[in-house]
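Backbone Fold Data
Goal — fold tokens
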Amino acid sequence: MGFLFRWRRPIIIILVIMVVSLSLSYTAGVRSKMVTLSNLIGTVVSPASSSLTFLGNRVGLGISTIEQLFTLQKDNMQLRQKLLLYNSMKLQLSELAHENNQLRGLLALKGQARGWKLVSAAVIARNPDSWFQTVVINRGTSSGVRTGMAVIVPQGVVGRVVAATPVSSTVMLALDPKSGIGAQDVRSQATGVVRGIDPIAGQMTFQLFSHRPNVLPGDAVVTSSYSQYYPPGLLIGQVSKVSTTAFGLTETATVVPSVNFNRLQDVMVVASHPHSTSLPPIYGGGGH
């Protein structure tokens, strides 16, 4: 006992060192096992974690793409609406420009036709079944309009009045096959009668009186002095082709009218005009 008492401190120190060593050795073993377990878990979980990360990125990209699609659709709709508005405004401007040009032409026509009595009128009705045969204008007998009066525009002959009421009149268009117009070829002075043959295609036939009239494509055709209803020199149209009848006795010419019958809006009714006069050539006159 005296020996232990005497060596108690070294013995205690040695025991403490042994306990600490054993504890460190045990802790290192546990830590090694934990690291191994952590690595194993990481190996197992890593693919799933990568897949989830990839899937999350794709989902985020898909949501972003859907948002972009909705934005593009909204922008596209706005652009369509703006384009529709632009086209509508463009059409309105075109119609206003056409109407303005027509009114300017009518004013110029009225100024050039000195001594002529012209009644301004507007087309107010068209029958779909006779679109290229008759129109109704807003002037009648109360305005001095009578049956048989010629109706014109700056571009040439429109037709003639076939019926009149106090406030409106019916105009037979030059395209109507029943509308015969005494006509003359400006270049060759050959005469004949112009009638409508294909109102839809906008063509008329020029039945020539002489055997060899010398009419050529491109010739201007105007109303002649033999016309019953029209003053002489009003432009009717232009010759597009010339053909001979089956027996070769007479020639006929196809005439394209100078007036656009699809866009008739404002016209002039010739209430009266000086005899033996015609309009200046710029307005379709023959310059007689």
In short: The chain is about 40% helix and 25% strand.
